[in-house]
Amino acid sequence: MKIKNFIAAFVVFFAINSAQSQDKKYIVHTVAFYNFENLFDTINQANNDEEWLPSGAMNWTKKKYQKKLDNLSRVIAELGTGDKQANSPVLLGACEIENRGVLEDLVKQPKIANKDYGIVHFDSPDKRGIDVALLYQKKHFKPTSYVNIPLYIYRSMEGKGDKDKEKEETDDKVETDNSSDRVYTRDQLLVTGFLDGEEVNIIVNHWPSRSGGEKKSAPFREAAGALNRKIMDSLIKINPNAKIITMGDLNDGSYNKSVKMMIGAKLKKEELKNNGDIFNPFEQMYKDGNATLFHRDAGDIFDQIMISKCFIGDDRSTFKFWKAGIYNKPFLIQTTGQYKGYPLRNSQSEPGFSDHFPVYIYLVKEVK
After folding, report:
1. pLDDT tens sequence across 261-294
2. H or E segment to which residue 149 belongs
3. 85, 362 in Cβ contact below 8 A?
4. Which of 128, 172, 123 is nearest to 148 (CA)?
């Protein structure tokens, strides 16, 4: 009889706790990164944009520019939706942007105008005239500070050259200041603000390309990783519980020295020991055979979002990492020709979306 009473009491207790669990409500936010692949306007400026003019090699007309904006806005509107998430990204890092003007045109597109995106953007010294930026939904994120942090790299840092067959094809034009040997590239953008009242720090990156070959250019990206680590260490010194998100097109995989050693990114959450330690959910995704871009039929994940230890854990009273994904819906994929299965990029005849798939993570917080 006592056993029956105990079982009955346990069933009631379990039912009550299950009901309470089901009653819990959560905020779910998407944080994303997207390489916009040559988002240029049609106005000639002093930034090597001749290719992206109506008279240029891409025959970049106003009609094509508007189509490109429409394509990107469609992706942004749908990026990360589903999985109990209806809203587009509240934070969206982006790269390959000509200027602030193209972003102002983008956020006004009908598909995303109601999201009321704010813009954080600086012109960088990159000789091709492309920058990084952060778009944020003003309703959810309030920036308190932002700064562009230059990456100083020099031609004398280059490694030994690759064999010709190993050289990478890239749009990037690596240019050097002959008086200083400096190689001009993108700054790293640091934005601090409050996400629904909770302070977060976001670093947006577009690391130096593999122009000239992976091995030759590797020291440039290793320097970028070291700068990234320095920024994060500075944030942790100011606030030992700082929540940090670093995202971008790194032009390296999760396994490269720039990410594994210079940043110190970890494959498993269990490896995180200190608050400054960084978890990279895209390393396992790469191991599982996923990709955000392709080169010579080999896929890789150059587009990554990494997070500090304070985003990890089961206590959902503050924002915590839930899961990560690559947004590679069928409409973003080339269906014919030599590049079948690749991301549907720009061509001379038709604006595409991008030569990269966007990536995202979900942050979740319990509503009290």
Report:
1. 999 999 999 999 999 999 999 999 999 999 999 9
2. strand 141-149
3. yes
4. 123
